[in-house]
Amino acid sequence: MDPFFFIQLADPQFGMFARWGGVTDEVIEAQLFKGSKVRKAPPVQGFEDESRLFTEAISEANRLKSAFVVVCGDMVNDPDSETERAEVLRIAGGLDSEIPIHWVPGNHDVGADTVSATPESLRTYRGAFGPDYFAFQHSGASFLVLDSITIDNPSPVPGEWEAQLEFVRTELAAAVSRGGPIIVFSHHPAFLKTPDEPTDYWNWPLERREVLLRLLRDADAKAVFAGHWHRNNYSSYGDMQVVATGAVGYPLGDDPSGYRVVKVLPDRVEHDYYAFGNGPGSVEL
Helix, strand, coil proportions of the chain in percent (round to 5)? Predict the structure, then answer.
């Protein structure tokens, strides 16, 4: 295979700056207790900050000539907002025509209550962004996009988890047969610290996590890249990297808004996170 690089984005989340603008000190303290750093800021309306940051992300992909762009979910904050979706797609339309963009569903995109999907919310998402799970290939590497929202809570959408699991089995077998690196994208990280950590809001539920991790291990997948955490996190499962990438939009930790450059090489996957305004002059392979 020929080496290449792509840009991973996560959580542009149009509407989140307005969501947290003007909240009280008590709310900020409560979020900090939960591990999320909300910043004191005056009330804002609209999504001027999100538009500026996502435009910069698209501009960086154009400037660096990324092989493709993947957005690991939470494109919007309000799953019912046609205005937020329209602005995301308008800015994404500025990506050079030869650079594909791949959308990964987030809980704010496909979760009817921003947590769990319904048949109607899945139809809405698929109508706006395309399939919620799919596979693609580039330059000898195989990629799987997962819908971690129906993995998280499959009960409101009967059959979706089972269909997705069969898809994963089939596509991993095809990828192994083809050879080359296998890389997975999800909104929720598989886990943050350890593969057997308890289920919570931030990870794949343990019961289904164990099934998926075994399949990925057996296929020798190189990495799972995710978002959702709104800051960077690095872990591993054997030789497989498990990476959460900081937000394009509103950060919930100390990592600034930015993007990840991922190099896919014949024998390894390398990556670096860059704050906006501090990106590389070029990407050397």
Answer: 35, 20, 45
pLDDT at 273: 99
Residue 132 per-residue DSSP state? S
The answer as to whether 269 is a domain residue is yes
Structural domain contains residue 284? no
pLDDT in tens, 113-148: 999 999 999 999 999 999 999 999 999 999 999 999
Q: Which two tokens stand for residue 49?
A: 């900050």
Please enumerate in sequence order all residues whose Cβ is within 8 A of that of 109, keeping only pairs 6 or more positions apart, or say none: 73, 74, 75, 76, 79, 125, 129
Q: Are 266 and 249 in contact (CB under 8 A)?
A: no
Amino acid 205: pLDDT:
98
Query: What is the rounded distance in angstroms from the CA atom of residue 29 to the CA atom of residue 258?
Result: 25
Range of the domain at 134: 4-275
For residue 156, count other CB atoms closer than 10 A to its CB: 16
Structural domain count, the chain? 1
Mean pLDDT over residues 52-56, rounded? 99
